[in-house]
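Holo prediction — calcium ion.
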Amino acid sequence: TENIKWWQKAVVYQVYPRSFQDANGDGIGDLKGVEQHLDYIAKLGADVIWLNPVYTSPDEDNGYDISDYEDINAKFGNMADFDRLLQKAHDKHIKILMDLVVNHTSNQHQWFIESRKSKDNPKRDFYIWRDPVAGHEPNNWGSFFSGPAWQYDDATGQYYLHLFAEGQPDLNWVNPEVRQAVFDMMNFWVDKGIDGFRMDVISLISKPDGLPDGQVPTGGVYGNADKAVANGPHVHDYLKEMRDKVLNRADMMTVGEASGVDIQNAIQYANQDTSELNMVFQFEHMGLDNNPNPALGKWYDQKVSLTALKENLSKWQNKLAGKAWNSLYWDNHDQPRAVSRYGNDTPAYRVISAKMVATLLHFMQGTPYIYQGEEIGMTNAYNLKREDFDDIEIKNAFKYLIDKDNLLDEETMLRYVHAKGRDNARTPMQWNNSDNAGFTTGQPWLKLNDNYQTINVADALADPKSVFYYYQKLIQLRHDLPIMTTGKYQLLDPEDNDVYAYRRIGQGEQLLVINNFTDQVLTRNYSVPDDARLLIGNYDDDEGQTLRPYEAKVYQF
Ligand code: ISL
Ligand code: CA
């Protein structure tokens, strides 16, 4: 236990500033709004805030297209607001992780404005430019946001690579000047005293030599760039260089968002020797409920199979143990709401199943991440229609998959978006039952979920049995019980498709975690000693072998 690092027993609360709290009535959440709720986050007990991007940005991808890394998006405030937020958070012993988006910049970044001017511009090689091949794109890669990953630029007659939106040209990490510019920028934030970085798609920064075509899924149009690019030839060298030039300058926490990363890769990125990062966000469990038709990717509306989920999460628990560190998450600003995806968001079961889903995750080994609103059981936004969506991924999916490529009909797509779309997580935070849920006095930038009258922070704080207080207790337990950080994970009954039960095994002590994933009453017999104590549960009492709908309970012995 002496070797536990602070970030191994920390709990992170993710704030999406645009949707958290609007302090000036322009309809957009801002830094002052975050400051107003620091006490709320402290009350929950979180140790760290991960702040989604707050830098200057044309907001084509809500801040993930940065035009100035060393300034604050005017919509969110200014640098003085940021400095004050950091200071106030630190006063309350809350750390702040900044989002680092350096796979790409905005096409409005000064570097790109220069780069596109001419082939001999000193910034030309900051980005990835290629000649047309036989009159079209240099290779077959598709963008993460549908459509091609290349944009032709008239000025010089070449294409530039954008794995994400057209306005997000990929940086050329092979160029040492690019790396140095990124490290200098990071040091600007380190010098301010921030506590670490969440690194956006960091697994994609090193492109494969020769940029080979990706595999085209059956029925699809473009090659899979994710697979072709993830974990490229130099990514580990670049991260070691970053550690050397930036990360080792302070005791920081780092989490790499790592799409396309498997166990072996994760062990390299997040190795215990901390030569690179502390942990990664892996995506395997996020893909288990993808459409069986690979051309449709994530767009689907069927729930994940519990046995598949168990198999996957258990693999990560077991294989990283003692080698690397896990991050634990169900949702974030890119994913649907946890209770809607893994629990049951109907009124009868919303609260109980939100607590079950939380129990399942929070007793695992790793650093848990809670996305704003998850702690009050906010749900997907079924009231949003095609014209209400803001997210570029959703808009492009409609544009390409339906309007252009005719892969499915609009009604089915809307169902899929209600299940999986990113805007489910981005609707404004529901603070109370007043107009616009107390988020803004103006016109909200994105429509609210229309259930805010019944699901909101004010009600949660007034109800001792709310999802909020359950999360508060989970966080407290993680702080108090070293076994939650160090205990060895052991899955029980891998074939049981209704109950997810596992043990955490320590020196002479154990936890038994039992989660009923169904709305049925079930009977299960796990061996528990007579003197076992019920540590936490989502019902008021314990009926032993009888598991009520979505019941979750943890025994300690
Ligand atoms: O959102 C996704 C699935 O719905 C992912 O494919 C996502 O685009 C990918 O995980 C990368 O996400 C990150 O980088 C993107 C940005 O849009 C996301 O918000 C960010 O979390 C590009 O910067
Ligand atoms: Ca505002």
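READOUT: The first strand starts at residue 12 and ends at 15.
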